[in-house]
Amino acid sequence: MESLTSAPETSTFVPLAEHQSRTPSSFYSGPAVLHYHSQRCKIVILERELLAAPALNALRSESAPTATATQDDDEKEVAIDGVDVWVTSDKFLLYSTAASAGVSIPYPSISLHALQRLRVPGDESSTEVQGLYMQVATPSAPSADDEEECTTMTVVLPADAAVEASTEEGETETPTKQLYEAVSACSNLHPDPVEPGDEDDDMEDGAKFISAEDHEGVFQLGDGGMPPPVDGSSGWITAENMDQFFDADGNWIAAGEAPSFPLGPGAGTVRAREEENGAEENGEEDETKWQKTD
């Protein structure tokens, strides 16, 4: 979560409709795509969490009273009014013109976002509204239970933010649902980084896949419970090359010592191909086979 000292310029972003109407010259450069933008929003947040996040606390204008959280109002919620919201393909942006301050939130830091029904603090109408609930990870020291610390807040759009839209399925999307969909789409563009060791969790102990670039195109296996390739086989003994290593009686005929690992029952045995009527190539009937009946 980074502080902003100047308001983002909407004209510097490419509108989503324009982005979808043409093929960009590059998918890796150029201005960010604006998926959603709304002005005069409210940010509902716990007082203690607001005081613990200086970048968010800066959104409150100087005219607003600065409260100090105590044990009595530990769960007190406050609403910051007049906050503009930009959902871009790069980052999630908040800015307050009255306070001349804003925040830039990377999408990997948004660990959770969902639709929420709530009452806005200080709203005399006391009616429930829809908002976008968000959990933003904060880079603080790990807690005692090793859980990631996060700041929770809800973005509430103004009543006249936008008109409701109908989807192809006939459902009605509220402006807040459109905001939710925009955050979901942009979050998918920024997947969480893979932590070291995550890719090897499902592999057996000792097994290791080696890059083909490092071993001239040959994938090798370490001691992962499988026998090593037989010398001279350029790989493994398969049905296609078995005749190069065993005769019809299963005796080792290839150069070098016979493999010492167990091959399993029937390994190396060459069986005659059976005809469709159940008779072997030598013409003798296999008495153990069932005969076809009408």
Describe this structure in words.
By secondary structure, this protein is of the alpha+beta class. 10% of the residues lie in helices and 24% in strands. It has helices spanning 16-21, 47-52, 54-57, 175-188; strands spanning 2-4, 14-15, 33-46, 77-88, 92-96, 101-105, 110-118, 129-137, 150-156, 165-166, 172-173. Strands 1, 2, 3, 4, 5, 6, 7, 8 and 9 form a 9-stranded mixed beta sheet that branches. A two-stranded antiparallel ribbon has the order 10-11. The model is unreliable at 64-71 and 202-225 (pLDDT under 50).
SSE map:
Elements: E1 2-4, E2 14-15, H1 16-21, E3 33-46, H2 47-52, H3 54-57, E4 77-88, E5 92-96, E6 101-105, E7 110-118, E8 129-137, E9 150-156, E10 165-166, E11 172-173, H4 175-188
Q: What structural class results from the helix and strand content?
A: alpha+beta
- Total beta strand runs: 11
Q: Please give the share of residues in helix.
A: 10-25%
Low-confidence spans: pLDDT under 50, at least 5 residues?
64-71, 202-225
**Strand/helix succession:** EEHEHHEEEEEEEEH
Distance between the termini: 77 Å
Main beta-sheet annotation = 9 strands, mixed
Radius of gyration: 33 Å
Can you give the mean pLDDT? 74
The number of helical runs is 4
Fraction in beta strands: 15-25%
Describe the global form.
elongated
